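Backbone-to-sequence.
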């Protein structure tokens, strides 16, 4: 099926640029490989106009009350939920994820709006006891200014919403650049922001595929932009650090992971498998917190493998609009190639294939054109394999067997990134011991889900800087001003 729609290259709320006929962006449906839509390809000039609109709007928006911004966020939350199914259809079409996950992404996105509507009114300053008896010292928190929000394709709406919600709560204005592959749900988000009453110029959406790097560079070097929030790869995150250095922008970076999952002998097998299914197969394995290296203690290995296979066998592979599908396609052919490379590399270095989804090779009549990879379990993961070193971003479950608790700290921490990590045990002491020893920004104990609007999301090491969501999320969007007062007569 061929569908076609257009999104404007810039601003649904700033109105700074009317859509112009230029090279059309092409987004392919990951389930079929067919052209999905076209969208105007924004360029440098559009990025500059969007920044101009955001900069102009900031002059007034920074003076609005926290309560009025909280109301805007609540209104936007309601609109997102009212339009949940329509937005979910767009997410499925552009990203490929299963229907239930797309619905859940809309709820997850809305949860950031609801959360930050509360946080808007809690950006408290402090009063500080001064050493000088004639002094009084207080601090206030003020919005940092124009924010560039660079969002990824794996949770296109939620990641944009997480950034925009914090920005609005703080009183900042934003230029949002969704990933070139997934511009549509974010463009709709911009339209809904306008309907919610967000003032003109406060939320500006700019779309582009081929010009993504150019737009990123424009936003990162423009002195009017004071903060960049990026979710994506560690490689691009490092480039952004260099690009923003000259104008000393504040940066939030939520980058790649290589999550270890540790399953101890004393784990509840069913719970461990439930968690692995969530962390490994959410969005087909395409999240930064996806389980990547499964470390399973010898005594539980057989029971764990049996349960994992049974559960994965029961998960249908298919396009997201088929409501039975539990595992969708990957975003692109390149992604598919990478997962297969990781699988073949592991097999060539001594791992054995324990199971591969029966739909394999995925039957041509149903899957030939989509980016489907058959979910696969391999055992015998070792430190020299690609899947050990880099995140796979796909439905490959690679398992390494270990014997003693003392081994796992070194194994789990054998990476320069540190975003998510998971462990399964019924021993509370062990759970805390190991959680404390793991080099990661987030640890799940007996759960495969780390994502919640109220929980600080972010990593350590080469997984990036800062926390998104939670009571900490607004901090990156404000600057603290100290005010000193002389009260002497
Ligand atoms: C990510 O994959 O970048 C974010 C995942 C999440 O927020 O759950």
């Amino acid at each position: 099926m061929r569908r076609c729609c257009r999104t404007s290259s810039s601003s649904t709320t700033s109105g700074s640029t009317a859509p112009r006929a230029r090279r059309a962006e092409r987004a392919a449906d990951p389930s079929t490989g067919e052209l999905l839509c076209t969208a105007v390809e924004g360029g440098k000039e559009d990025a500059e106009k969007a920044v101009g609109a955001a900069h102009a709007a900031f002059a007034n928006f920074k003076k609005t009350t926290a309560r009025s911004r909280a109301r805007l966020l609540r209104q936007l939350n309601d609109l997102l939920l009212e339009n949940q199914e329509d937005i979910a259809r767009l997410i499925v079409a552009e990203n490929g994820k299963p229907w239930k996950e797309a619905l859940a992404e809309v709820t997850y996105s809305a949860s950031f709006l609801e959360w930050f509507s509360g946080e808007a009114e809690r950006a408290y300053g402090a009063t500080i006891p001064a050493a000088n008896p004639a002094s009084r010292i207080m601090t206030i928190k003020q919005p940092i200014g124009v924010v560039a929000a660079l969002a990824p394709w794996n949770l296109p709406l939620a990641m944009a919403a997480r950034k925009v919600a914090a920005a609005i709560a703080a009183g900042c204005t934003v230029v949002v650049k969704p990933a070139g592959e997934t511009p549509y749900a974010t463009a709709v988000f911009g339209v809904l922001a306008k309907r919610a009453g967000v003032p003109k110029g406060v939320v500006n959406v700019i779309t582009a595929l081929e010009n993504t790097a150019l737009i990123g560079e424009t936003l990162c070097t423009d002195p009017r932009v004071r903060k960049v929030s990026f979710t994506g790869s560690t490689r691009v995150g490092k480039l952004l650090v260099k690009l923003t250095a000259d104008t000393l922008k504040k940066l939030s970076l939520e980058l790649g992971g290589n999550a270890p999952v540790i399953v101890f002998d004393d784990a509840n097998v069913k719970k461990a498998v439930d968690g692995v299914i969530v962390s490994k197969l959410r969005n087909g394995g395409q999240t930064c917190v996806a389980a990547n290296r499964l470390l399973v203690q010898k005594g539980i290995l057989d029971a764990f493998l049996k349960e994992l296979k049974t559960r994965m066998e029961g998960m249908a592979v298919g396009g997201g609009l088929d409501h039975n599908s539990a595992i969708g396609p990957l975003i692109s052919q390149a992604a598919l190639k990478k997962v297969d490379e990781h699988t073949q590399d592991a097999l060539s270095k001594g791992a054995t294939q324990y199971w591969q989804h029966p739909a394999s090779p995925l039957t041509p009549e149903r899957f030939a054109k989509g980016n489907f990879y058959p979910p696969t379990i391999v055992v015998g993961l070792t430190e020299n394999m690609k899947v050990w070193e880099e995140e796979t971003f796909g439905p490959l479950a690679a398992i390494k067997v270990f014997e003693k608790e003392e081994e796992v700290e070194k194994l789990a921490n054998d990476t320069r990134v540190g975003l998510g990590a998971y462990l399964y045990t019924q021993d509370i002491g062990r759970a805390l011991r190991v959680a404390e020893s793991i080099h990661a920004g987030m640890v799940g104990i007996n759960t495969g889900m780390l994502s919640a609007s109220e929980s600080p999301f972010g990593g350590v090491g080469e997984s990036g800087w800062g926390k998104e969501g939670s009571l900490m999320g607004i901090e990156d969007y404000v600057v603290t001003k100290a005010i000193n007062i002389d009260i002497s007569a």
